[in-house]
Amino acid sequence: MLSRVVLSAAATAASSLKNAAFIGPGVIQATRIFHTGQPSLAPVPPLPEYGGKVRFGLIPEEFFQLLYPKTGVTGPYVLGTGLILYFLSKEIYVITSETVSGAALAVLVIYAVKKYGAFIGQFADKLSEEKIARLEEFKQSCIKYAEDGIDFEKEKQAVVQKRHYLFDVQRNNIAMAFEVAYRERLHTVYREVKNRLDYHISVQNMMRRKEQEHMINWLEKKVVQSISAQQEKETIAKCIEDLKLLAKKAQAQPVM
Amino acid sequence: VNEELSTFFYVPVGTMMLAIAFPAILLPTPNRLITNRWITIQQWLIQLIMKQLLSIHNTKGLSWSLMLITLTLFIGLTNLLGLLPYSFAPTTQLTVNLSMAIPLWTGTVVPGFRYKTKISLAHLLPQGTPMFLIPMIIIIETISLLIRPVTLAVRLTANITAGHSLIHLTGTATLTLSSIHSMTITVTFVTVILLTILELAVALIQAYVFALLISLYLHENA
Fold it and tell me: Could you give the ipTM of this predicted complex?
């Protein structure tokens, strides 16, 4: 509010200037101070582990410490007893039905606290611990998920580093395939050429054979033609005489 | 006892405001996730009760959940605090209970009649009634419907007031007997203890019943 007064005073002062722009409510809004400090409540201060110490469940220990220098250990007890007796005897505190109901309630409450107090405290602690465990488990699972992702990524990066092996193998395979195709084609060419050459050779051989046979047949025919009849008779007579001589030799020999 | 009976008709505004506002101190709002034992137990209790109370509602009905939680907590706490000696329970006043019951009941019935008139009217007649009974049944059901806020308020008032009265009467009996025949006070004292236990239970149960009935009326009328 004071800032608004200051700003309106500044506005009236500034409006007297020559080049003063109209200072409207927008300026006041813009210069109002909002949220300048750190708005975060975290981290909250930790809770104390144990509550304040009390005697009789009602009166804090500090009261006894307060009275100790003056009245010693029994001081507060004497004070309490005296006060109670004073109130009762002077009927400042009147015993009515409320007293009885208060006494009954006190009996019940003290019994319940003594018997079940620790149990309820442990139960509450267990609830808190379960909550913390759930949150912790979630946090751990998130961390684990992130770490697994990191490991997976690293693994993949390592694999990528080794990609060149795969490329080399593929390159080798392709080179071998090329080589095989080249040799196959070479072999085909060789075979075809050999085929053609064999054909020519066989043709030559056949021609020579044919010429030889033809020549032999011609020679034989001519020789047979050249043998006249007389020569034939003389040749046969000679053969008969040779045979007779051989027969005589043959007769003579088996006797031996 | 005189105090209690006369306060049925006379409204002590100052102490009533204090008594109505005080339970809020006992229900702190946590500013951290893992709280102290008091708040942890409260959260656990509220979860336990509300699961029962809100399980029958659909999404639209769950917009009433804050109202029902507040109702249960208020009635329960004020009843319990009223059991302390020299304290005041606002739920013993019919005005308080009526002012809770009538708006809540109206809020469950009137939207039902407005948006789903046929279904709301159909609730007035149970299935399978013989023809000649129908007019009677409709009149009776209408009366029972209109009397619900009154029953809610009067039930709560009567239970709590009766419990308080019993405890105070038995207490007075104990005091009177202590001067006549001291030994019987053990019997009456035990009676007072038992009645207090009953009252504790009744206090909590009444709160629950109130909220439960309202949630049922809500569910009936969608």
Answer: 0.79
